[in-house]
Amino acid sequence: MNSEEFRKAAHSAVDEIIDYFDTVQDRRVVSNVEPGYLRKLLPPAPPVEGEKWEDIQKDIEAKIMPGLTHWQSPNFMAFYPANTTYPSMLGELYSAAFTAPAFNWLCSPAVTELETIVLDWLAHILHLPDCFLSEGKGGGVIQGSASEAIVTVMVAARERYLNQACEGLEGKEREEKMNCTRGRLIALGSEQSHSSTAKAALIAGVRYKSIPTRMEDGLALTGDGLRMALDEYARDGLEPFYLTTTLGTTGTCATDQFYEIAETLRKAHVSTRIWVHVDAVYAGAALVLDEYQHIADQFAAFDSFNINMHKWLLTNFDASCLYVRTRADLTSALSITPSYLRNPFSDSGLVTDYRDWQIPLGRRFRALKIWFVLRSYGVNGLKAHIRKHIVMGEKFAAWVRERDDLWEIVTPPAFALTVITIALPARSKGTLPDGMTEPRVTDGVATSNTLPSTSEENRDRTNALTKKIYESINAAGEIFLTSSVVKGIYSIRIVSANEKADEAHLRRAFEILVDTAEMVISESKA
Ligand code: PLP
Questions:
Q1: Which residue among 142, 194, 415 has the greatest number of ligand 1 atoms within 8 angstroms of its CB, and so is best to mutate?
Q2: 322 and 138 in contact (C-beta within 8 Å)?
Q3: Which single residue of 188, 349, 428, 519 has CA 20 to 30 Å from 28?
């Protein structure tokens, strides 16, 4: 493809992308192709002679589109959103054009320097404590995913712990102590932590333990829960070196009790030994709002923080922003410098080489799209985007409460996510059933569940009904939701938080929930 051909092809592709965005809400949101559909549509081998762009482009609509689930549709209310926007796409386009696997500063100084600057900007916007800024000993780095970020910090935590444990020892004595300590190391998360922490432990070669959470604590990890777990591990001769805490768990968007956790670690005299990571991949976006700043203030006690801008912050995948309070912890654990990677700038110590802050060597120019997004929306644009969805989530929960003859809230709206299940039988509208509690509000976030305790028989029935409703809704394909099992309660998660989502879309989703529930319940009685 020459320059003129590219100009024509790119214009045509951009036109098609704009049309796609303008009409995406009219498409069936979840793909319903059969496994292996694409192999039947494509030839068994690539063409021997190159094809014209016009012919290639046609296959986007004909062959790829049927197999796409439309995450950008305002009717996508499943998992967590994966926002993309035009400014972000432009960043990707330039990045693809410049393609520079800029592992060292010298490989493209702008790639490194823009990354440091935009991550400092983002830290300010999120009200992160100063210890995470590059001006001090900390700083941010863009990774491909939260899972990658967690493996990276877990390795740094392991090395920091081992070095502390073996301080002053040398030679064989040091080696023996290292090996012996390694075998006792455990990484921790809560029962609600994302599976990426367990996976990171697997990769880092350490054991993993999850600390139980309780419904009455809103499924948050609490100081007491952590203290009891630490006591138990000490009795078993285990050595915790790392803990994932979460702002916005995957299942219900629960928020751990950060202050209590920090206090528990301080009282146990392990705050400098156990590395605490804050997994804020989705809900961290809410920290742009001043009313959530008090949550971020608590992170000064912790070692690292991660937010995926590619979830709720208008930037396309991948833009996982990891911050550490002591960058030397990363570089001393991960820096290996063969002669071909040496250069005077790196040797001078005056530049950042992000290859030492991550697992891969090469890296993409991801800062560009973040820069475009931050400049195009401005801080106020980001705030308006997040606030809109939080308000919508509150309205959704209010509609559910109005239909408490049909639906119950398992966990109240948290960062635009509400988790519901079908109401127990014989429930009269407007009355609180036995065991139902008002939501506990901590740090401005409603955390406790409002669900009544119930007999096993009733629960089996409501679980089966909820599952049937959920499956019917997704099979119909107008909206896409995900389910979750919360402490034995089969639940439906509704999170409407992509850029195109308005109240009207959410209201329609609620109508679908109500209509489908009524249909499934009446069928179950027939
Ligand atoms: N942490 C939480 C709370 C998540 O919800 C997810 C995924 O949705 C992850 C971590 C993993 O994210 P990634 O796909 O970036 O590895």
A1: 194
A2: no
A3: 519
